Amino acid sequence: MGKGMGIIVSKKKKADDTAAPSPKDKEELAPVPKAAVEPAAAAAPAPPVEPAELAAPAPPAEPAAPGAAAEPATNSIPEAVAVKDGALESQKMSFDYKLQPHSTIPAPEGPLMVCILDGFGENEFKDEYNAVHVATTPTIDALRAVPKRFRTIKAHGTAVGLPSDADMGNSEVGHNALGSGQVVDQGARLVDMALETGKMFEGDGWKLISQAFSKHTVHFIGLLSDGGVHSRADQLFGCLRGAAARGAQRIRCHVLTDGRDVPDGSSVKYVEELEAVLAELREKGCDARIASGGGRMKVTMDRYEADWSMVKRGWDAHVLGKAPYTFTDAKTAVTTLRGPEDATVSDQYLDAFVIVDEAGAPVGTIEDGDAVVLFNFRADRMVEISKAFEYQDFTTFDRERYPVGLRFVGMMQYDGDLKLPANYLVPPPEILHVSGEFLVKNGITTFACSETQKFGHVTFFWNGNRSGYLDAKLEQYLEIPSDKIEFNKAPDMKAREITAASKEAILSGKYKVIRVNFANPDMVGHTGDLAATIRAVETVDACVKELLETVDQVNGRWIVTADHGNADDMVQRDKKGKPMKAEDGKPLPLTSHTLAPVPFFIGGKGLPDGVVLRDDVPDAGLANVASTTFNLLGYEAPGIYKPTMVQMAA
Ligand SMILES: O=C(O)[C@H](O)COP(=O)(O)O
Ligand SMILES: [Mn+2]
Ligand SMILES: [Mn+2]
């Protein structure tokens, strides 16, 4: 399989402000006139690092090829990857994974396909801005018309472990719920609780960074918005205030502008809010400033190794103080880089910038002995930059300078298997007994496929944030390399290649479960380009048709669903739902996910007529999918999972 098709098996590899007063013994810092702090801070050189500190534990070496698989010449099943977490392992060992045959639903002759249409919601607004509604989708339309085999399910808010029902869903929490059958408190909520209870400031991660408070700089790097998908500005502010109140003398923020989980153009507002908090800290005697930044899709926040050059640009700006643009303040940086109104660069794609003093020197490079906090809680877009900070022998790009004795922490541990990073502020959610574990422990084979941008979604997130195979003898994960462009320019993305590879897997007879994610409605939806998103939805509809026909050829069954909304609303709306327009009369694009529920379809030639959706689980959400999956495979669902949505009609 795969030869000549351009597909690969993934080989995921694995200045001291001496002039500033320092009331160290006080919980609250004494107010200091702003003017007294700033000039001194800007001119201050980095403090020398004590030899004793430099002898602090060396960062670990980069492990050899962690993650999924070694790359063989053909797509043969790669070597297993050990899961090393002892605590987790012992819980699993004592857990009974044996699946029991379903009392009324027989096992299928062919495979079960679970197809995720990423970012494809069923939105109440069915107008010209709903790309799902406007697109010509004969396949999905036909599925919607089948009685008792179509419904919608919840994909946002508390149904997927987010703090409130005002939180839109996202791929991480969505795939976690789909793959684990359970709802767990997710990162956003765990960080909220750690701040509310003060536990944030008592943990080992905080203790580590606090070593830098009196003589070094504490750097905060992350996504500056209140999107709640990767980070939240209020959580950053809580950490900043917490650090200053506990004696941090010098703080630098390195901000990645959003415009993807929040409206484009909002970066200016978030920079202003952050500047207000930093001014408040300066009033209290802490030398606090923004030091560098750039757009999230251009700087630092790459994922799944799609484009390491993004991470290199981030390293250069945050650590070395090198970027194509320099400014003396962040608001000017963001407004200037966005450009004129008629040719605006999106917040997502702003070039890297560095803030400099009057003499042109960067105000906040990362130096020996400093502390660095990645303040995003979500993992996928923090793993690569974490490796650059954590691994002493990192070679993926030339770091030029690697600060010695760094105190480096993540808001969370982003990869529990790699223990990356080793130090973190808040323990991540523990997602145990995921559906993949039941499958492999019962000898059931799986093929999982997507393109790079969503590859970790159908593997890492699906498996409860675990990298690599659960059992490489029984699983095959296939990654189709994504294009490295803005996806509205190629809205078909790699859907056809994913389809071709999945069809081959379905027909091969080697796999009982086929798991596929189509990235298009989400990735193109994030560009805010309505026409391209309509095209993306139509492409996916055509691909789904091919896959369903292929499953039918082998008497299989299928589930088609989604992880959250996105393409289903492409315009910002007022409180009444009315589309909002810019001054020039053009609609204001919506680049983010939506709160919409998602469709859930079952079917297939191999599905007995009597198997229908229940009508007594009206509140079902993504976490109810896993039980349903087991039933469609002919097994009773694990008791710890949310209830199934199917039954055999009497
Ligand atoms: O990281 C992203 O691309 C967005 O913030 C969220 O999109 P996803 O949750 O669909 O990946
Ligand atoms: Mn998604
Ligand atoms: Mn998305």
TrEMBL record:
Associated pathway: Carbohydrate degradation; glycolysis; pyruvate from D-glyceraldehyde 3-phosphate: step 3/5
Catalytic activity from the UniProt record: (2R)-2-phosphoglycerate = (2R)-3-phosphoglycerate
Biased amino acid composition, Low complexity: 30-44
EC number(s) reported in the record: 5.4.2.12
Domain BPG-independent PGAM N-terminal: 191-415
Record-level GO BP terms: glucose catabolic process; glycolytic process; response to carbon dioxide
Recorded GO MF terms: manganese ion binding; phosphoglycerate mutase activity
Gene Ontology CC annotation, any one: cytoplasm
Pfam families documented for this protein: iPGM_N (PF06415), Metalloenzyme (PF01676)
Tagged with keyword Nucleotide-binding: no
SUPFAM superfamilies documented for this protein: 2,3-Bisphosphoglycerate-independent phosphoglycerate mutase, substrate-binding domain, Alkaline phosphatase-like
Similarity annotation: Belongs to the BPG-independent phosphoglycerate mutase family.
Protein name: phosphoglycerate mutase (2,3-diphosphoglycerate-independent)
